[in-house]
Amino acid sequence: MTDKTILRALRGEVLPTPPIWMMRQAGRYLPEYRATRAQAGDFLSLCYTPDLAAEVTLQPIRRYGFDAAILFADILLLPQALGPRLWFEAGEGPRMETTTTRAQVEALRPTGAIHDTLAPVYDTVRILSRELPRETTLIGFAGAPWTVATYMIAGRGSRDQAAAHALKDTDRATFQLLIDRITEATVEYLSAQVQAGAEVVKLFDSWAGSLKGADFHDFALAPTARIIAALKARHPGLPVIAFPREAGQGYIGFARATGADCVALDNSVTPEWAAEHVQCDGCVQGNLAPEHMVTGGEALVQATRRVVQAFRNGPHIFNLGHGITPDADPANVQLMIDTVRGG
Ligand code: CP3
Fold first, then answer.
1. 160 given a catalytic annotation
2. 138 within 8 A of 69, measured Cβ to Cβ
3. Whether residue 37 lies in the annotated active site
4. Which residue of the set 24, 181, 226, 245 is catalytic?
5. Distance from C-alpha of 182 to C-alpha of 125, rounded to nearest angstrom
6. Active-site residue among 11, 28, 63, 156?
7. What's the rounded Cα separation, in Å, for the pair 59 and 66?
8. Which of 64, 122, 151, 189 is catalytic?
9. Which of 27, 136, 211, 224 could form a disulfide with 215 if both were Cys (CB 3.0 to 4.6 A apart)?
10. Is the backbone of residue 136 left (phi > 0), alpha (psi -120 to 50) or beta?
11. How far is the CA of 158 from the centre of ligand 1 (A)?
C-alpha cells in the first residue's frame, strides 16, 4: 500500500487536506516553461523530446510541490500516430488532416503501429517515474474517443463540434467505426503509459457536453466504460479519472456507469451540487474556476475555501475546473495552494 495522497483519495479515503494538482500546470504562464519550449523550437518537438517533456513536467512540481505530475504530451498525439498529419498554427491552435470518409477511417494505421510514433512519450514517462519525488503521483492521459474524433473530423478545434455531429448524424456506421478505432488505440496507448510507470490515467472528454441524450450514452459514456474495463482487466487496481467536461446532469452516476474511480468536475456545476449528486459515488476532482488564477486576491481565497469546504466530507482531489490559461499569474497559484493547505 502506498502513502501517496492522490492514490489514497482515489481509493476513497477522506483526507484532512485534499491533495492538489492543476490541469495544464506545465504551461505558458510559467517563465521556465516558455524557456524550455523555446529551446525545443515548437510545441510538438517539446512533446516528442523526452528529456525536455520530462523537464517541463517537473517544473511545476519543483516550484509548487503539487501532489501529482501530469505527463507532458497532448491528446492529439494519438490520432497523429494513427496517420493524419498534425501541426499547430501559432496563436491559433491545432490543425489536423481530416478523417471523414469510410475509406479514410479504413486507411488509418493499425492499432499496433501507434507505438512507432508514441515511443518517445513512453520514454518521458520512464524518466518521470525515476525522477519525481517519492510522494508525487504520476498521471498519464489520453483524450476520450468523442473529443479526439471531433478534432480528426473537423481538422481543428470548434466551438460547437458541428462537423463531428454531422458525420454522426449522416453516416453513423463510419462515425462508429472511427470511435471504435480510437477506443481500441486508446487502450493500447494508456496501457503502454502504465507499463512505463504511469500510476493513474485520466481521460479528457473536453467536448462531452455537446452530446445530448442517447448520444451522450453512446459516445461519451460507452467508449469511456470500454476503455476503463479493458485497462482494469490488464492492470488490476489501476485508478482512472474521467473528465466528461460540461456533462451537467450527465455527471450523475457517470463514475458508476463507467467504472471510473474519480470524476473531474468543470465550472458549469457548483461544488455544493456536485458534493450532493456526484461525490456520493466516490472521489471527485475540481473545480475552482481557472479565471481566479488571473484575477487572484480575496475572491480567489474565498472561492478556494468554498470548494474545499463543499467537498470536505468525501474523497476529493483539489484542481481547477479546466486548464490554467497563459495569462495567469504564478503568484496566484501559490496563493491557491497556501489556501488549500493552510485553511
Ligand atoms: O495538463 C497538462 O499540463 C498536461 C499536458 C496537456 C496538454 N494538453 C499540453 C498542451 C494535456 C493533458 C492536454 C490536453 C488537451 N489538448 C486537451 C484536453 C483538455 C482541454 O484543455 O480541454 C485538448 C482539447 C487538447 C488539444 C490542444 N492542445 C489544443 C486545443 C491546444 C491549443 C490551445 C492552447 O492552449 O494553445 C493545445 C496546445 C497545448 N497542449 C498547449 C499545452 C501546454 C499549449 C501549447 C504551447 O505551448 O504553445
1. no
2. yes
3. yes
4. 24
5. 21
6. 28
7. 10
8. 151
9. 211
10. beta
11. 14
Provide the grid cell at 182. 480510437
Spatial distance between the Cα atoms of 165 and 155, rounded to a whole number of angstroms: 14
Q: In whole angstroms, how large is the CA radius of gyration of the chain?
A: 19
**Residue 272 corresponds to which cell in the numbers above?**
455544493
Binding site membership of 74 for ligand 1 (Cβ less than 6 Å) = yes
Query: Taking Cα atoms as reference points, which of 235, 261, 76, 224 lies closest to residue 157?
Result: 76
Q: How many residues does the chain have?
A: 343
Q: Given this structure, which CATH class describes domain 5-342?
A: alpha beta
Counting Cα atoms < 13 Å in the Cβ hemisphere of 263 gives 34
Is 24 a catalytic site residue?
A: yes
The DSSP secondary-structure symbol of 240 reads E
> Domains of the chain: which residue ranges?
5-342
How many whole angstroms from its chain centre is CA 66? 16
> What is the position in ligand 1's atom list of the atom closest to the CA of 157?
30
Question: What's the average pLDDT block by block, 10 residues per block, for the chain (343 residues)?
Answer: 90 97 98 98 97 98 98 98 96 96 98 98 98 98 98 96 98 98 98 98 98 98 98 98 97 98 98 98 97 98 98 98 98 98 84
Give the DSSP letter string of 124-156.
HHHHHHHHS-TTPEEEEEEE-HHHHHHHHHHSB
C-alpha cell at 113: 503501429
Which H or E run contains 306?
Answer: helix 297-310
